[in-house]
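Ticket closed. Logging final result for Oligopeptidase F.
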Amino acid sequence: MEQQRLKSRAEIPDFNKWRLEDIFTDNSQWEEEFGFIEKLAEEGKKYLGHLADNVETLIECFEWMDNLSLRIEEVYAYARMRRDEDNRNANYQGLTDRAGALAVKVNSAASFIVPELLAIPEEILKEYRAKSAKMELYKQALDEILRKKEHVLSSREEKLLAEVGELAEAPGVIFSMANNADLKFPNITDESGNSVELTKGNFIQFMESQNQSVRKAAFKNLYRTYEKQRNTWAATLNSSIKSDVFFARARKYPSALEASLDDDRVPLKVYDSLIDTVHEFLPHMHRYVKLRKKALKLDELHMYDIYVPIVPETTMKITYEEAKKMVSEGLKPLGHEYLDILEEGFKNHWIDVYENEGKTSGAYSWGTYQTHPYVLLNHQDTLDSMFTLAHEMGHSLHTYLSNRKQPHLYAGYKIFVAEVASTLNESLIMEHLLNKTKDEKILAYLINHYLEQFRGTIFRQTMFAEFEKKTHKVVEEGGALTADNFSELYRDLNAAYYGEEVVLDPEIALEWARIPHFYNAFYVYKYATGFSAAIAFSRAILEQGEPAVARYLEFLSSGSSDYPIELLRKAGVDMETPVPVRNALQVFAELIDRLEKLIG
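Final structure:
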């Protein structure tokens, strides 16, 4: 039998790699910038205790802080993306560690600014704003600081928290290194009888196999590997949760959840309403699971049967080149400006395409203000990988437009709105495919794939969000979180979300151990809210055309120039009501109806 293996980094063609030289031409240039930032950080001492002296000193300090922030972002992004190319590379492990330590040093150097600003009487700040037109640039930033006044500590305490920051990142760093660099999975036998190394990158591909024994082998072997370190994963995640709770309490928030939401000025009711609204629609989720069991003609539907397309004759193989064409075609409703930038990203080495040994799993979009966005992929020639490309390029164009239209201070957008741009791309492409497809089997396949996006983005991410809420509450109430506690909570949530039609294989209780997002708590709910907002935008764009496109592109160009809830409201979507989530889930229910008619 043929033995397949992952390629080394050197075996990947250059035209399928991103070009990080656009940030720094080589490591020596990175070292020069590193040294410059160390010196620049020291300059903050001359502003310490003097922000109330006059408006000129205040503006000069703001400019220093913005310059420092811009430069450390570039140094850290370069080092981390180099490490992500191959996590086993000790040189880039070292650069990333140094960049992280420098970022903590930068945060510490600037930690006096907020406490000093809050100590300046509001009438003085008002006088400063009247004296200098330059202060207008800082209006939103100042408003953001002043609204959090009760959660800001003394200058000495803020400095201490900033210096503790590196320790707080330890659980996530340890998880990432163990999960990406050290974890090795056994070989399994694929559909053709070949012995293939199981990886995190090809796991979902195996889970979509029409051969149940292949799905089962991938599922069992993946979790068997995680099971060996279950107590270590639990200790690491527990430490991350305790860190969240510590920082929330230090800043006088009622809970870690409310501390996290306050970063985006998102009311607690948005989070709770999402969970409640999804629970309203769980009967439809259970109906979908039942339809899946029937379509696959299975006596028992297992957790490893959840991803396989339920229309087996139409499994689609999509090369990366084909994926790019499909993305461009599906995004035509967004107009020439959008498509021109998309093409620039395809041609100019924004994207790192294929999996290689040691490469970070999954996909992301990142980048720097002075260059352009970057996308990490692990492309697998599947429909799902095509949608991943569309998703990450949605993030990248959001970044590109905000960087182009906003000053650095406001170019970075909040995570709450980040998933709108990525998911809208997927939604528009799916609507395009559904409209042009005549073959009923392919149509059923696409509807099933769309249903899977709803399941994976609204239902699954909300289940994750509920898991995060419950686990943090355990710690906040003084309870313990062991591997058994985590697994029991996780199993119960799966039972509620998937219903009685699915066999809850014991391995699924351990899935929490492999989810990297849990180390960035209260992030995943934004996938669900973002997906709901994206459905609203996509419907408006397809129904209204140019006016809706103009509003949407204005939204993409807004960065963080206003609070995320307000930016969405200006563009026509009000996330403070359950309406967008409810409407999106109504589309889910209608898609089930359509699929039932097609497959009988």
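The longest helix spans residues 440-476. No further action required.
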